[in-house]
Amino acid sequence: xxxxxxxxxxxxxxxxxxxxxxxxxxxxxxxxxxxxxxxxxxxxxxxxxxxxxxxxxxxxxxxxxxxxxxxxxxxxxxxxxxxxxxxxxxxxxxxxxxxxxxxxxxxxxxxxxxxxxxxxxxxxxxxxxxxxxxxxxxxxxxxxxxxx
Length: 148
Description:
By secondary structure, the chain is mostly beta strands. The protein has helices at residues 116-123, 133-140; strands at residues 17-19, 23-29, 39-45, 48-49, 54-55, 60-74, 77-81, 86-89, 95-111, 146-147. Strands 1, 2, 3, 4, 6, 7, 8 and 9 form an 8-stranded antiparallel sheet that branches. The protein has a two-stranded antiparallel sheet with strand order 5-10. It is globular, with a radius of gyration of 15 Å.
């Protein structure tokens, strides 16, 4: 919702949602809202791998953990993050995200914005297409998310 002074407010239970099988994305600030400067989304879901290994050639992705824990492969390093931890994945860096045994919830900042469009496309496919390398490859090519 845009307020008269151009402030953007998303209340609990609001925001566009993509159901991705193991995870769910709720968009708080879409690229179209921010002039494509960034996208902010909340991801939540169960334990296990949420993505296939991939990289973004033209964007950074940041993760701020709200609940649970995650193991994130970043390049050749495995990073364990818990509530209150922040992780920045630089452009053109291979990464993969897996939630811990209790699942997790995190805020993801994508700079520049627009990658949420890929998640909406993936959400229109079969459950867990986000982890299917073939499905990801076909859609990712259009959205700066290159399987690695």
